[in-house]
From TrEMBL, chains A, B:
Family listed: Belongs to the nucleotide-sugar transporter family. CMP-Sialate:CMP antiporter (TC 2.A.7.12) subfamily.
Annotated SUPFAM superfamilies: Multidrug resistance efflux transporter EmrE
Gene Ontology molecular function, alphabetical: pyrimidine nucleotide-sugar transmembrane transporter activity
Entry protein name: CMP-sialic acid transporter 4
Ranges annotated as spanning the membrane: 45-64, 76-97, 170-187, 199-223, 235-252, 264-286, 298-316
Organism whose genome encodes this protein: Tripterygium wilfordii
Membrane topology: Multi-pass membrane protein
Keyword Membrane: yes
Superkingdom, natural source: Eukaryota
Chief localization: membrane
Alphabetical list of InterPro entries matching this protein: EmrE-like, Nuc_sug_transpt
Subcellular location: Membrane
UniProtKB keywords: Membrane, Transmembrane, Transmembrane helix
GO cellular component: Golgi membrane
Length: 345, 345
């Protein structure tokens, strides 16, 4: 019904009349144009929200590290993030029910067919997070940050294969540049160590990139499968399974710590801020998946990484390296080529 | 007459019939196609020649440095390079005169109008080379190598402004990437020093990049002004003025050394090899200017820089850095985008 290919939505999004207040008397084409414009606005808004939330997320992490080592269990914090997202989705739904009543698209009850796919992204992320502990046997933390850029390529490839959406040749070139640019921006004097990563380390990094890319692409497929379905219902079910799988992670990794020191041990004001931020960016990711796509998400988080570094200069007195400038230039050209590639092909 | 925009020459160069042996009986269009094909072949050949000669040039420099410091006067070597190029052009001309006789396009005698522009590139290079000694007051040698990549941008800008040739938007993006990629490939742990370059250093680096770009663009204008004019005549006059200006450089910089130790002091087998290589790559540059353009030259020398590094791994046991891989990736994408940009626009 409401669903159309995102790629098509954009084309006229900018060339539309500014007058969207008096739609009633307009012919059908103006209505369509206005609705495309509002879709474009929504897509842009969620993309900006995701970029800003992701940047502030990284800054909060730096801040919390400066304040000392993590004292809390990361798994309990992840569980709290899922719980908060679930609660927020439910709150939004209650508001909709009050204003518009319960419809086929906003009711919470579901069928097995609809809900059966929702655990898959959460399960993939759980496996990926567990693997994360083992990869450090082969790679150090800065090396892992570098290898994580493989996510960009895996997302592009799986987006093409699974969602069967085409990128133009220029957009593929832009995607390779995005990966190279992000990695360049993160280079430091020790980065060359990553080239000595043993074979097992590379395999694990590639498997993790594929798991992460697959989870992202699968989430997009879920969110777009039934476009008219209210996003808060979809989020609610997605996050319920997130809670379940994070509960499993607590049992596997932090059972003793939680039993001995309590669920909320080591929580501080900054921990609460981080949980709030992660919850909001999680919801922003869902919205980008529904109203835009994985490619927009990858660009958004990459630009956020650069923004974080620039903001850190002012906040923490970090120095920007020449590699950062070069990487940022390449990422900027990539963003430009991605949009030019879309218009031309 | 023979002259057409290089941009147009390419388009059908690859889609032409393979049968170029029996041209006589073919209609005119086949003749044109065959002549375009031969132009494309010539352009490709000179580009490859320049790339290979430039790579081996850098390898000879590394080799000569390994063998010890320069014992000879660089200015006398440069003079010998110009003399050799002049002699080679004359030799080629004599062969042409014997085979085809002297024509309007192959005769050596010239008018003031034709020859008056030939000293300008040599003069520009002289000023640039003299400035080179002063910039080291502000930048160290590796920093200077990094700043030299500004040549890429200045060549592109001057090519557009002076020769009035258009690059597509994608080709401009590719050019920015070429500059960023080459710089990334050269990054090392001390590269960040270049960011502390004082204002005067930046100004000098920009002025030198403009001089170098202007000399290149001016040479192209000279070579293409009269397309039917034999390239060896054009080279002869270009190199005669090269000899004159390098003689001036000997007087300014190495007069005492030459007077006391002799003109050829410190020359070794490798010095002779380097002079031979520089002469041949100089002629290749002229040919690229006549049959291709400055953009091709910049791409050619950039790819040569990457080839040199790869070959040095085998020859001298150098290690390739992660930055090198990233930079090479960006340069490769840039080469791809440059050709795609040309076809599409």
């Amino acid at each position: 019904m409401e669903y159309r290919k995102i790629k098509d939505e954009d084309k006229d999004g900018t060339s539309v009349t500014d007058d969207i207040e008096s739609l009633g008397g307009k012919p059908l084409s103006a209505n369509i144009a206005a609705s495309e414009r509002s879709r474009w606005m929504r897509k842009t808004t969620v993309t900006f929200a995701l970029t800003l939330l992701t940047s502030s997320q990284a800054i909060l992490i730096v801040w919390s590290k400066r304040a000392g080592k993590y004292e809390y269990s990361v798994t309990t914090a992840n569980f709290m993030v899922e719980t908060l997202k679930c609660a927020l989705s439910l709150l939004a739904l209650v508001r909709i029910w009050r204003n518009e009543g319960v419809t086929e698209d906003t009711r919470l009850s579901t069928t097995f067919d609809e809900v059966s796919v929702y655990p898959i992204p959460a399960a993939l992320y759980l496996v990926k997070n567990l693997l994360q502990y083992y990869i450090f046997a082969y790679v150090d933390a800065p090396g892992y940050q570098i290898l994580k850029n493989l996510n960009i390529i895996s997302t592009g490839v799986l987006y093409r294969i699974i969602l069967k959406k085409k990128l133009s040749e220029i957009q593929w070139a832009a995607f390779v540049l995005l990966c190279a640019g992000c990695t360049t921006a993160q280079l430091n004097s020790n980065s060359d160590h990553v080239l000595q990563t043993p074979f097992q380390g590379w395999i694990m990094a590639i498997v993790m990139a594929l798991l992460s890319g697959f989870a992202g692409v699968y989430t997009e497929a879920i969110m777009k499968k039934r476009p008219s379905r209210n996003i808060n219902v979809q989020n609610f079910w997605l996050y319920v399974f997130g809670m379940v799988f994070n509960a499993v992670a607590i049992l596997i990794q932090d059972f003793d710590a939680v039993m001995n020191k309590g669920f909320f041990h080591g929580y501080s004001f900054i921990t609460v801020l981080m949980i709030l931020n992660h919850a909001l960016s999680g919801i922003a990711v869902s919205m980008v998946m529904k109203y835009a796509d994985n490619i927009v998400k990858v660009y958004s988080t990459s630009v956020a990484m650069l923004l974080t570094a620039v903001v850190s200069v002012f906040l923490f007195g970090f120095h920007l390296s020449l590699a950062f400038f070069l990487g940022s230039t390449v990422v900027s050209v990539s963003v430009y080529l991605h949009s030019v590639g879309k218009l031309q092909w």
